[in-house]
From TrEMBL:
Localization: Cytoplasm
Family to which the UniProt record says this protein belongs: Belongs to the class-I aminoacyl-tRNA synthetase family.
Protein name: Tryptophan--tRNA ligase
Sites where the protein binds L-tryptophan: D133
Motif ('HIGH' region) on chain: 10-18
Domain of life of the native organism: Bacteria
Gene Ontology CC entries for this record: cytosol
């Protein structure tokens, strides 16, 4: 059976990149797949988090999932820490993955910065936990932004190595020639990598210190307008063809955002706005962004007020996720040779 898994960290500042790169896809996929959508709070603590904020942010991301149209009855919506099998499988996979593989991960290098010796072990191990998140459900498809492509490749490598290392035992336990499917990344569309509004060479991130670098899903119309107007651009008018965006990362980014929000291609957007100056284009982008995002923002606020409801959704989701995870973890224990 085909199964989708994806996660969003319970850190604040959920932004347009998370929405266009990930959550919009989650909503589409629920029509055709069995889907698990997870608030990955274990990942969040790879960098320091305030405990009160962390709990708030877990509810905030869950509210965003629901506000964007993810149906918690049809899908499994839950928070990672409530399903201990994620961490349990991660340990086994830690013994499969190689240190050299982790040392090559660009997200670790970016997030650890210059003082790598002082980064948490968890930050280095982040992609192994992510592999466990996916593989504990034997998920086949993973919708993510482009920044997670390398981690997905690692998850496939880990799955493959586990299948090879334990091949004979997998067979003996009745699972044929492979236990874990190799998960396929689903990375597509005009906004798989939304860039910072301040620097077209850096991705839009929750962890960027500047709030002007991103449009948050919690921003009101005035904040969106201010941020888009202040967004970095170059002095030329927009090109009328897509290849004219080459070497113009900020222009490319704004056109990509416009395209994604309006469900059009970049070429189509340029056929309308080619030759326009940025002030004209930016005001159209503000109107479009406000029209698309304000209903979601309003719905998020309404859902956020009912913490009891959010907590019930997450508890129900965790119970259903755990039923699948426990069965797969038991199989892993048998395959690896743990006595139970
Ligand atoms: P952080 O900077 O703290 O890692 P983040 O913005 O990357 O935060 P995550 O919770 O790590 O947010 O990512 C959630 C999902 O959003 C992932 O699928 C990720 O690939 C996607 N995503 C994150 N940033 C972008 C972006 N700028 N464009 C498109 N997708 C993105
Ligand atoms: Mg991230």
């Amino acid at each position: 059976p085909q199964r989708v898994f994806s996660g969003v960290q319970s850190t604040g500042n959920l932004h347009l990149g998370n929405y266009l790169g990930a959550i919009v896809k989650f909503v589409e996929l629920q029509k055709s797949f069995e889907c698990l959508y997870c608030v990955v709070d274990l990942h969040a603590i790879t960098v320091p988090q305030d405990p009160v904020e962390l709990r708030n942010n877990t509810r905030e991301i869950a509210a965003a999932f629901l506000a964007c149209g993810i149906d918690p009855k049809q899908n499994i919506v839950f928070n990672q820490s409530q399903v201990p099998e994620h961490a349990e499988l991660a340990w086994v996979l830690n013994c499969v993955a190689r240190i050299g593989w982790l040392n090559r991960m660009t997200q670790f290098k970016d997030k650890a910065g210059k003082d790598r010796e002082n980064a948490s072990v968890g930050l280095l191990d982040y992609p192994v936990l992510m592999a466990a998140d996916i593989l504990i459900y034997r998920a086949t498809h993973v919708p993510v932004g482009d920044d997670q492509k390398q981690h997905l490749e690692l998850a496939r490598d880990i799955a493959q190595k586990f299948n090879n290392d334990f091949g004979a035992s997998i067979e003996r336990n009745g699972f044929g020639d492979a236990f874990f499917p190799l998960p396929e990344p689903l990375i597509a569309g005009p906004a798989t990598r939304v860039m910072s509004l301040r620097d077209g060479t850096k991705k839009m991130s929750k962890s960027d210190a500047s709030d002007y670098s991103r449009i948050n899903l919690s921003d009101d119309a005035d904040q969106i307008a201010q941020k888009v107007r202040k967004a970095k651009t170059d002095p030329e008018p927009l090109p009328s063809e897509e290849k004219g965006l080459e070497g113009r990362p900020e222009a490319d980014n704004l056109v990509g955002i416009f395209a994604a929000l309006s469900g059009r291609s970049k070429a189509d957007v340029l056929s309308e706005y080619g030759g326009a100056n940025f002030s004209t284009f930016k005001s159209a982008l503000v109107d479009l962004s406000v029209a698309k995002l304000s209903p979601i923002t309003a719905q998020m606020r309404r859902i956020r007020e009912d913490e009891g409801y959010i907590d019930t959704v997450l508890r129900d989701g965790s119970d259903r996720a755990r039923a699948i995870a426990r069965e797969n973890m038991n199989a892993v224990k048998d395959i690896v040779g743990f006595l139970r």
